[in-house]
Design goal:
The complex is a heterodimer of chains A (546) and B (137). Chain A has 21 helices and 2 strands. Chain A has 546 residues and is an all-alpha fold. Chain A has a two-stranded antiparallel ribbon with strand order 1-2. In chain A, α6 packs parallel to α11, α8 runs parallel beside α18 and α9 packs across α16. The two termini of chain A are 29 Å apart. Chain B has 137 residues and is mainly alpha-helical. In chain B, strands 1-2 form a two-stranded antiparallel sheet. In chain B, α3 packs antiparallel against α5. Chain B starts with 34 loop residues before the first helix and ends with a helix. The chains are: A mainly alpha (546), B mainly alpha (137). Chains A and B meet through α3, α6, α10, α11 and α13 of A and α1, α2, α3, α4 and β2 of B.
């Protein structure tokens, strides 16, 4: 299977124009397969497979968390958004970092102390496990699958532009097969190390790119920012000169800013693929230090989006980016402009590595939730029928999730407008997952009815509002390609791009109302135990010995 | 020795795996205990009622609650000002504007709050270790 994957890539890469990009990409794939081979020998048993034996160190997990978080949507998407919409794109950068304060102070340590493999462990701790786990599994799998489809469509589209010899379908299948190999054979350990390698590549690529951009401005911050105040572009025949430092180029309604910021700050602490990373470390203290490592890396990275986002606007201009693959191509195009073809190849390879690593992280989060929450705990009442069954189910699920994503990504095609799926993942995480996580850790009175109500209302309201928002419902101009059109050609019913401002309060309110409408003495009784566990780490899952 | 029966390769009961086979004959090693099994061994209510535990909780919330309110206010000031006071935010300071400087300051705010939290948390680790030592006889 491994050999055929490499062959597939090598064959189709032959007629491409950029051998350096292919060499680097194949190099990365080879390195990750070696990692998977060695991880596979250690990945037997649930704790080893789902949580890497809980022996990942603080800085390693920090890199892995940062890697999971800095997806292609961040690296390529934010660079493009700043290059085309200026300051408004930079707001994403700020929100992505500040969000980690929620993770650091409220969620990471209690989660590590009270949970085992999945986000739902913490919820099921003192609540009735089956309904809570079923609802949490649906939410986790929804978030992970939507996020993943967005990444896969992005990957396929990217390959088509960067490596003209590879078709969209081959690219999607290649990414899908690799991701299945990492997760099915290597489990969490392989996924973590793939993530670490990719985070290091991404950080070094971004530092080089930023330095090369600043070299164009003679390393003068003043000259750099000065160039941003009069960037000209053409729109429908008219010449527009804009100051890219001015807010409001993308969002006209102030509520859009607020709604976006809410989804970012509250969504991160509810993203299942980020949360399960805290189970891979030995204890809560290491979980804390890994968040700090992640905050340093993520912060430095998003500060650098200033240089390569605004830099692309200044050096390439919005017109050029628009004509050459759009926003997602801003960073690679900028790399070619400032560093030539070899650097272009390097940044492209980094972008692939990013996509591969993130889809692997999403797959393992979806499959552990299905195996641990749904199969073992909902169907089999928390008891494995045979030893090793949970891991076997997770492996099968990973395979199925991968196959389904490949089919959906191919079905949607390279030009599908899927950016909203990432926004949806954050909105669901903030509206459905975070309220119930916070309440189950901090609110004694909280109970099963509240948890199920919060999860269901948060999930439905965020998906529902996105369906009637401008991301889905917009009347496109006649010039827009059919595949890139919005799904519903009708004026939007809900005018904000992000549902957070409505759906997040709804999630919290539903959880409160559900709780107050029912009484569950057993859940309240076990709060004492949860509080002691969460705050002292007593009885927390331990690292396995070698 | 040569008359010994051929070795049975089925896993022996109690083999060191982290999945508990049914019908195990030896007690589980500590790292295999699941949350459920360890539960009975610890008197949670006694710890929760301990004055040092209450002090630990109070110290934590005395830091975490105000800090959370502070960082949320500081962060949401950004979209509020950008959305409703665009004139002020556009004001140029050298080659940049207030909007960018305020956004940039958020990075340092996040790092500083994280740094303060880590320093405080080191003290909590010590307090909780002392608390647990008291209950471990």
């Amino acid at each position: 299977m491994l050999a055929s994957t490499l062959l597939l890539i090598a064959d189709s890469a032959a007629p491409a124009t950029n051998p350096a990009a292919i060499t680097m990409f194949v190099g990365f794939v080879a390195a990750t397969l070696v990692i998977t081979y060695f991880s596979a020998r250690k990945s037997s048993g649930s704790s080893a497979y789902f949580a890497a034996g809980r022996r990942i160190t603080g800085w390693q997990n920090g890199l892995a968390v940062a890697g999971d978080y800095m997806s292609a949507a961040s690296f390529l998407g934010i660079a493009g958004m700043i290059a085309l919409s200026g300051y408004d794109g930079f707001l994403y950068s700020v929100g992505f970092l500040v969000a980690y304060l929620t993770v650091l102070m409220l969620v990471a340590e209690p989660l590590r102390n009270a949970g085992k493999y999945t986000m739902a462990d913490v919820l099921a701790y003192r609540l009735s496990p089956r309904p809570v786990r079923a609802a949490a599994a649906v939410s986790t799998i929804t978030v992970s699958t939507f996020y993943m489809i967005a990444q896969m469509v992005g990957a396929g589209g990217l390959v088509k532009v960067l490596l003209p010899g590879i078709s969209y379908e081959v690219a999607v299948i290649g990414v899908g097969i690799l991701m299945i190999v990492y997760v099915v054979f290597g489990g969490m350990l392989a996924t973590t190390w793939v993530q670490i390698v990719k985070a290091l590549l991404l950080m070094s690529g971004s530092v080089f790119l930023s330095v090369l951009v600043m070299a164009k401005f003679h390393f003068s911050i003043g000259e750099f920012f000065g160039s941003l105040s009069h960037i000209t572009s053409h729109k429908g025949g008219a010449v527009i000169t804009a100051d890219f430092m001015t807010p409001g180029m993308k969002f006209k309604n102030p509520l859009d800013f607020i709604s976006l910021c809410m989804a970012l700050v509250f969504g991160t602490a509810g993203l299942p693929h980020i949360l399960i990373r805290f189970y891979t470390v030995p204890d809560a203290k290491t979980a804390r230090s890994s968040v700090v490592w992640a905050m340093v890396l993520i912060g430095v990275f998003y500060v650098m989006t200033t240089f390569f986002g605004f830099g692309a606007a200044s050096l390439l201009g919005p017109d050029y980016i628009g004509k050459n693959g759009g926003g997602n191509m801003a960073a690679p195009l900028l790399a070619r402009e400032v560093g030539g073809n070899i650097f272009f190849a390097f940044i492209s390879a980094v972008a692939f590595a990013t996509i591969l690593a993130v889809v692997a992280g999403l797959t393992i989060s979806a499959s552990s939730s299905f195996a641990h929450d749904f199969f073992t705990n909902v169907i089999h009442h928390g008891k494995e029928q045979k030893p090793g069954e949970e891991v076997r189910v997770a492996r099968i699920t990973a395979f199925v999730v991968g196959a389904v994503s490949i089919c959906l990504a191919i079905g949607l095609g390279p030009n599908a407008n899927v950016a909203f799926l990432v926004g949806l993942a954050f909105a669901v995480a903030a509206s459905a997952n975070l309220p119930v996580i916070l309440f189950s850790i901090f609110w004694k009175r909280f109970n099963t009815a509240g948890a199920v109500a919060g999860l269901v209302v948060g999930l439905i309201s965020s998906i529902g509002l996105i369906l009637i928002s401008p991301t889905i419902m917009t009347v496109d101009a006649a010039t827009v390609l059919p595949a890139a059109r919005h799904l519903v050609q009708h004026a939007p019913i809900f005018s904000l791009a992000n549902p957070g401002i409505i759906s997040i309060p709804l999630g919290f309110i539903a959880a409160i109302i559900g709780t107050l409408c029912s009484s569950e003495p057993s859940a309240e009784a076990r709060f004492t135990e949860l509080a002691v566990r969460a705050n002292t780490g007593l009885g927390a899952e331990k690292a396995t010995s070698h | 020795m040569s008359s010994q029966t051929p070795r049975d390769f089925t896993p022996e009961s109690g083999a060191p795996t982290d999945v508990a086979p049914t019908g195990r004959t030896v007690p589980k090693p500590a790292h295999e205990l699941t949350a459920d099994e360890e539960r009975g061994a610890i008197d949670w209510d006694a710890i929760a009622a301990d004055v040092d535990f209450k002090k630990l909780l109070a110290a934590k919330s005395a830091f975490i609650v105000p800090m959370t309110i502070f960082f949320l206010l500081y962060f949401f000031a950004l979209p509020v000002l950008v959305g409703w006071c665009p004139g002020l935010m556009k004001t140029k300071v050298g080659n940049v504007n207030i909007a960018y400087l305020f956004a940039f300051s958020q990075f340092f705010m996040a790092w500083i709050v994280a740094g303060l939290y880590v320093r405080k948390a080191a003290g909590w680790d010590k307090a909780s270790a002392e608390l647990l030592a008291k209950f471990k006889k």
